[in-house]
Amino acid sequence: MTRFFTESDVLTHLPVDRAIDVLEEAFRLWGRGEATDSPRRRIRLDRGFFHMMTAAIYGQGVHGFKSYSVGGSTLVNLYDSSNGELLALLQAGNLGQIRTGAASGLATRFMSRSDSSTVACIGSGFQAETQLAAVCAVRSISSARVYSRSAERREAFAQRMSERLGIPVEPAESGQACVQAADIINVITSSRDPVLEGEWLEAGQHINAAGSNHWMRRELDDKAVRRSDRIVVDSMATAKVECGELIWAVDRAALNWERVRELRQVVAGDAAGRSDAAEITLFESQGLAIEDVAVANYLYRQAGDSMPELPF
Q: What is the reported pTM?
């Protein structure tokens, strides 16, 4: 039988702190060779693109895919790998927001200083909320700042997240003022041009860059990439196609791919996320189907019996 999850169901049953743990297990299995993920595929339409991404977690006996188009429905299909049965169909707008934040939370758990207490958020949109919530779930955060081009939006974000998280979140007047003396920096915008400059960075900071998944977009400038002592991506295959700031840095000889590691290596213990407190660390998140499949499987196992059945 196939279970159906609405957007509301996902919000009810998938807290961001639990999603972080779910992704940690999925990336650990992947690091052990018990999962696989395929880069996103795009088909051009008359207006925009249709996107599809696939993954299998052999260690959990499931596989699936996510499909979406800009402005349209986002869906995850979850299958039983033993017999091909469609286990669940999930509306995945909220699922995508939560798992994207959870991926940054997971990277923060392994890459930021354990005593990190302050966060800078560049970007104040839908995705920025779970980025900050996820960081707060893995570190004892005492305060945060937010910057975006719209003063109205950053002030609203600050008020909303202060109430949600129970910590002071203050709007900043500039990107530089936002990141000054911050322990962790979340960057999640739709900008084509860099919004985080390398000259602003300070020793010991950790950066989560999660807003861009197109080679023509860069959230960090080349200097920020050069100054990063340790760079981790969610998937090398995907980053080489989609991660604009790393692609541009490689083209300008500011980086070579041999310096870059994958999050699955870090989680599985095959690579270090940080070696000392002074390092500047960078996590580049493009968003992967293994994340969607992992949290979809969690939702199905935890709440499937309470969800309606589909007639196929």
A: 0.96
